[in-house]
Specification:
Blueprint (H helix, E strand, L loop, with lengths): L17 H9 L35 E6 L17 H22 L3 E7 L15 H4 L10 H11 L3 E6 L10 H8 L9 H4 L4 E4 L2 E4 L4 H17 L4 E4 L15 H7 L6 H23 L4 E4 L22 H5 L3 H6 L5 E2 L14 H12 L5 E6 L20 H13 L3 E6 L11 H11 L2
Parallel strand pairs: 1-2, 1-10, 2-3, 3-6, 6-7, 7-8, 8-9, 9-10
Antiparallel strand pairs: 4-5
Keywords: Signal
Protein name: Family 10 glycosylhydrolase
InterPro entries: Divisome_Glycosyl_Hydrolase, GH, GHL10
Length: about 450
């Protein structure tokens, strides 16, 4: 990493007693034997800060938005990457403060900021190289710390920030140029996991990903979350729905991993679901040990299981997280592993295969006997877009559909907020009627 700054604890991690505490925290996943330890990537040494008394939960509902950095979809500005370093920093920071000002005016109180879009970081990390989203080159120091800047500016405006991680994705494609860029990080400190732990890397959905069945890979992901929680005043941590991700033409080949670690499971599917559970459990416990005030949540696909496959499922016919991502999201809620869950309910009331109201009420019933809060992910990106199967998104600028969804969210006691996907759609011509409606409903 072309980095002018080092955390002082990196150089002495082997001698630090604090490493033992982290190792203990990372061993809490319920496995029968200690997982193999990485021989290359050190776990971060962290000092647990003194914790204030946990404040009472805010009664204000979450009015959130996802701010995406992968492929620079929302931020940073694409043209900033080719600017001179000083101009690049100015453009990126100005764009972010402009966005926060607009979000504040709309009544948005929580930003879910994508800090790990792939195998790179948008914070000053000792584990991951700098994201090429910032400079165009993996590992190049952007000249400032985007996560710190976001936290300072959002908190100044009275807004919360949840650090949003894609846990397993290493790259968004497998092009030769991507392979070359990843290989070129070998001389950096830190280098990419792609070169440090090549045996953890698989191809799935035409991307490089970590194999979720490898215990050391789960430890590594947990150490990344621990680094952020212990060094930044974030309000929350969120994982998105990319756990096991594969397509029929690009499946994840984990046969060898299953042979090594899958003893005792009736099927590979059950073993995969257990691997995902172990990661969620391990990350949840580690966050709470480091800072119990940091919320931990997941934003899964909207359908857990369909009623046709499971009597406990929803009356839907959609792609199910349990069967396709191997994520038993309902169980995580029941086990108390999450502070909140934010299912992506990206359909209108009229979509019979996955009705918005059917799913919102199903999730409300799931969280009802638990302490897990429920935020609903809403499809801002569909508003104003013509669709034969979902024509309601274009009726009167999509405002009636959006109003029905927000009305339902605010009328069901178990629903504690709404999150819009995603930020840059607030700036598109087709959504402006809906944006004006949001401003009138949520804004000052």
């Amino acid at each position: 990493m072309a980095c002018s700054h080092r955390f002082p604890w990196v150089n002495t991690y082997k001698k630090s007693a604090a490493l033992i505490a982290v190792a203990v925290a990372l061993s809490l996943a319920s496995c029968s034997s200690p997982p193999p330890k990485s021989l290359v990537t050190p776990l971060p040494t962290v000092t647990k800060p003194p914790m204030p008394t946990k404040p009472a939960l805010s009664k204000e509902p979450v009015r959130g938005v996802w701010l995406t950095t992968v492929s620079r979809l929302d931020w940073p500005p694409i043209n900033s990457v080719n600017a001179s370093p000083a101009n690049r920093i100015h453009q990126q920071q100005q764009a972010l403060t402009d966005k926060l000002d607009k979000l504040k005016s709309l009544g948005i109180n929580t930003v879910f900021f994508q800090v790990k879009p792939d195998g790179t970081a948008l914070w000053r990390s000792s584990i991951l190289p700098w994201s090429d989203m910032l400079t165009g080159k993996i590992g190049e120091d952007p000249g400032y710390d985007p996560l710190k800047f976001m936290l300072d500016e959002a908190h100044k405006r009275g807004m919360k920030v949840h650090a949003w991680f894609n846990p397993y994705r290493v790259s968004t494609n497998v092009k030769p140029s991507t392979v070359n860029a990843l290989n070129n990080t070998l001389s950096l400190q830190p280098a990419s996991v792609f070169v440090l732990h090549r045996d953890w890397i698989r191809t799935a959905s035409d991307r490089f990903v970590l194999d979720p069945g490898i215990p050391a890979a789960r430890d590594w992901i947990t150490s990344i979350v621990a680094e952020v929680v212990s060094h930044y005043p974030i309000d929350g941590v969120q994982f998105d729905d990319y756990f096991y991700t594969e397509t029929p033409g690009s499946a994840l080949n984990d046969n060898a991993t299953f042979r090594q670690y899958g003893q005792g499971f009736a099927s590979k599917a059950d073993w995969r679901r257990n691997n995902t559970l172990l990661l969620i459990e391990q990350v949840s416990r580690t966050i709470k040990q480091l800072n119990p005030n940091v919320e931990f949540g997941v934003s899964p696909a909207g359908v857990w299981r369909n009623l046709s496959h499971d009597a406990a499922g929803s009356d839907t016919r959609g792609a199910a997280a349990y069967d396709e991502a191997y994520a038993d999201t309902r169980r995580w809620v029941q086990m108390g592993l999450l502070d909140y869950i934010a299912p992506q309910l990206y359909w209108p009331f009229a979509r019979q295969a996955a009705r918005y109201d059917v799913l919102a009420n199903w999730w409300a019933d799931v969280v009802k006997p638990t302490h897990t809060r429920l935020y609903i992910g809403v499809a801002l990106y569909k508003i104003g877009e013509a669709s034969k199967s979902e024509p309601d998104w274009t009726v009167n600028g999509g405002v009636p559909e959006l109003k029905k969804q927000l009305d339902l969210n605010e009328s069901v006691p178990q629903i504690n907020g709404t999150i819009l996907f995603r930020e840059n759609y607030l700036n598109q011509p087709q959504t402006q009627d809906a944006v004006n409606y949001l401003r009138s409903r949520w804004g000052d």
